[in-house]
Amino acid sequence: MKRLLVLAAFAGLSFPAVAGDDWWPSKYGAGDTIGAANNLSAEGTKAAAQLVKLGKTYALGVVTDRGTPAYPPRSYNIVVTQSNDGMGVPAAANQVTANDDILMTYLGIGTQLDGLGHLGIGHRYYNGMLAKDFVAPGGLTKLGTESIPPIATRGVLLDMAKLRGVSMLPAGAVFNRAEIEAAAKVSGLTIGKGDVVLFHTGYAAVASKDPARFIAQQPGLGKEGAAYLASLGVVAIGADTAALEVIPFESKTEAFPVHQILLAKNGVHILENINTAELARDGATEFLFVLGQPRFQGAVQMVVNPIAIR
Q1: Fewer C-beta within 10 Å: the chain N or C terminus?
Q2: How many CB atoms lie within 10 A of CB 52?
């Protein structure tokens, strides 16, 4: 869970447990563990493939390094080692040398996918699953990101900065159903079941200039907009911001309510820190979206590099 203590807005606040069971069992079935990924289909993949006209590919992941903005205490470290005696002395008759690497990192850093076990409501997660029943120090026994099916489906980009006539939305700017529908209408889009929706806000420009501000405050999706997109059957929602949702939050008494609506209540995956800049520059509005995440057993989140193809 994102560390709320890094956000000054939460100083001194306490958050009571949320009661109620009106959001489970899931509409996909009481035993379901993949949520809105049930809306993926062979037909959707074939239709999305027809969107490829140029053969142009876009890396939607940012490069992750030691300076990547991250919610404390998240960090990234890599160590490169040389084989044999540690000095890389050539071996065998053909003088073979090699390098290996050891990665020590949080998986919720850089461009990341939030799994359904990431954020819940009063210790209940997607489909009402209690943390005590699947959360373990050695990895999640259910809802791990390794269980997410391959995603090859229609992706749509909603350029919220362009909609407002600016290059970058300011921190705290929220978009909900009205703004989503307006952006879709301008682009001639109809958002549908099985889609992946990405938002361009321009706010990624802040990441290198002011990493702390990039994490602490940002434009983003509001509660009504999240519920609306979930009702359309989308599989995942992402943006070029650190948390997808607007910060400061719409209510001063809540923390990460959009995450709760999408992950816990609707099984919709969240994609954060998406590199939408090139798609926006090209005026791309729909494309084939492809994601096959690393399958690390029991992972809560995952560093990813989704691909858009036009």
Answers
A1: N
A2: 13
